[in-house]
Amino acid sequence: MYTQQVGLCKQIVREHYGPIVETVVDVLLREGRMHLGQLANRTKLTGPNVRQALAVLIQHGIATHALSKVGSRMFTFYSVCLKSILRLQRAGLYLALVEERMGSEGLAIFRTIMVNGLTTIGNVREALGIAENGNAAKIKFNSVVAKLVRDRYIIAVNTVDTITKVDRIMQEEV
Fold it and tell me: How much is the pLDDT for 148?
């Protein structure tokens, strides 16, 4: 990986998530996948800080994790996706495009998802203050969400999506 790419990724992550998350990303980009203990050791951060940084990265689809056996013990290994970090640069473009094509309702929904990362549609509805009952606002909300999904601005994510292809292949071989 090029030093310029790592530097750019560090700047992007620092701008979006702060210096602690940047430190974790820097180590993972430079040294590859590692478990929590290794990360805490290499970053010189406390375990709770590293865990919180990883939670943020996983929540926003930047980090992946997988269980692997090392000797007789199981460890959760973490890695980050360079492309996911670089996509953050285009956040403004995505927001403008959604607003142009989906209007202010689509923009509000999309922005809420971008801010919160992986979330449920119910949580988005709640964050926007839309009532559960069958009023016009909920019907409009459901319509806009359906259009965002249909046009692939948002996608459904499962827990298996937070595991890299390599780790999935390794798990299948065991």
Answer: 94
| Torsion, Cα of 27, 76, 162, 6 (10° steps) | 10
For residue 118, the one-letter residue type is L
61 close to 159: Cβ distance less than 8 angstroms: no
Give 99-151 pLDDT, tens digit per residue: 999 999 999 999 999 988 888 899 999 999 887 766 888 889 999 999 999 99
Among the listed residues 29, 15, 152, the one whose alpha carbon sits nearest the alpha carbon of residue 89: 15
Question: Which of these, 45, 12, 4, 15, lies nearest to 27 by C-alpha position?
Answer: 45
DSSP bridge partners of 77: 35, 66
Pairing of strands 34-35, 63-70: unpaired
For 166, other C-beta atoms within 10 Å of its C-beta total: 12
CB 141, CB 148: distance < 8 Å: no
Whole-angstrom Cα distance, residue 129 to residue 119? Answer: 15
